[in-house]
C-alpha cells in the first residue's frame, strides 16, 4: 500500500514547535534537500479509480466525524451510536499528511476504519474547549494503534517507536528522511506497519511487519469512497492484527482468497 515515494516534512512554523519536532520528522526548510533527486509524485500507474462520495463506511458500525468540545485539538471519528452489549472497540491515533490539523481529506478513509470497530482521534486546529467528555464506545485499551500518512506517518513513528502501550503502528507513504536516524529502526518495539521498502529492509530480525505497495502516487486513495483500496487494505490489516480474523489475514496474504489484496494489486 505504501505508494512509490514518501515525501513530506513537518511544518515547523515556530521555534516552540520545532523544539518539540518529533524525532523522525525534519524541518520544512530542509525538505528540498531530500526531495531534489526524487520529487514527490501525486499520480502512479494505479490512480484512485472509484468515485468519491461520503458514506458511513462499509462495516457494521456507521460512523460520522465529530468535533467534541472537550477535545479542542482533535476530531473524533466514532460510531453514530455507541455499540451495545459488551463490544469493545479498538483505538487509533491518526496523524494527517503534511502534519496538518485539517483531517477532512481523510474523512472517507477514517470513517471506513470506524465502521469496522475502531474509534479514532485525529488532529484538528485548536479551538476553545468546554470540557465534559462524551461516551462514544467501550475501548479495549490493549488494542491501540498509532498511524498516519506522510509527515503524519513520521509523527506516528516518533510517538510509537519506544512506546509499548501501542499494539500496532501503521505508516502510510513514508520513509525516514535522514540516514543518521535510520539506525533507530533497530529500536522499534512494534510495527505491523506499512512503510517504504528501504526502511523495511532495515527492520530488526523477528519484528512482525507487513509491507504492502500500490502505485497510486503520494495521495493514495484516501479521499475516494470508503478510502478505496487503501481503506480496504487498512481494515483487513487491523482486523487481522487486532482480532485475529483469519478471513482478513487471508485477504492480506493469500492471492487466492476472495477480495485478496495480492490479487487486487
Ligand atoms: C457482558 O459481559 C458480562 C460479563 O461477562 C455478561 O454477564 C453479560 O451477559 C454480557 N452482556 C452482553 C449484552 O453480552
Ligand atoms: C472478519 O473479516 C471479514 C472480512 O473483512 C468480515 O467480513 C467479518 O465480519 C470479520 N469477522 C469478524 C468476526 O469480525
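Sequence proposed for the structure above (265 residues):
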Amino acid at each position: 500500500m505504501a505508494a512509490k515515494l514518501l515525501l513530506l516534512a513537518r511544518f515547523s512554523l515556530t521555534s516552540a514547535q520545532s523544539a518539540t519536532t518529533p524525532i523522525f520528522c525534519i524541518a520544512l526548510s530542509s525538505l528540498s534537500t531530500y526531495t531534489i533527486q526524487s520529487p514527490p509524485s501525486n499520480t502512479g500507474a494505479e490512480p484512485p479509480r472509484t468515485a468519491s462520495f461520503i458514506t458511513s463506511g462499509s462495516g457494521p458500525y456507521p460512523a460520522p466525524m465529530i468535533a467534541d468540545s472537550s477535545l479542542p485539538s482533535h476530531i473524533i471519528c466514532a460510531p453514530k451510536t455507541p455499540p451495545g452489549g459488551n463490544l469493545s472497540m479498538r483505538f487509533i491515533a491518526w496523524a494527517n499528511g503534511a502534519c496538518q490539523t485539517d483531517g477532512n481529506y481523510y474523512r472517507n478513509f477514517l470513517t471506513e476504519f470506524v465502521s469496522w470497530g475502531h474509534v479514532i482521534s485525529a488532529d484538528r486546529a485548536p479551538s476553545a474547549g468546554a470540557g465534559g467528555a462524551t461516551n462514544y464506545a467501550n475501548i479495549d485499551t490493549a488494542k491501540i494503534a498509532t498511524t498516519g500518512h506522510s509527515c503524519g506517518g513520521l509523527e506516528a513513528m516518533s510517538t510509537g517507536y519506544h512506546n509499548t502501550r501501542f499494539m500496532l503502528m501503521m505508516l502510510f507513504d513514508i520513509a525516514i528522511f535522514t540516514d543518521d536516524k535510520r539506525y533507530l529502526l533497530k529500536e522499534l518495539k512494534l510495527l505491523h506497519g506499512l512503510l517504504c521498502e528501504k526502511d523495511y529492509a532495515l527492520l530488526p530480525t523477528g519484528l512482525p511487519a507487513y509491507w504492502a505497495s500500490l502505485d497510486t502516487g503520494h495521495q493514495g486513495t484516501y479521499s475516494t469512497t470508503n478510502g478505496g483500496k487503501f481503506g480496504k487494505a487498512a481494515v483487513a490489516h487491523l482486523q487481522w492484527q487486532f482480532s485475529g480474523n483469519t478471513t482478513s489475514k487471508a485477504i492480506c496474504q493469500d492471492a487466492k482468497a476472495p477480495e485478496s489484496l495480492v490479487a487486487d494489486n
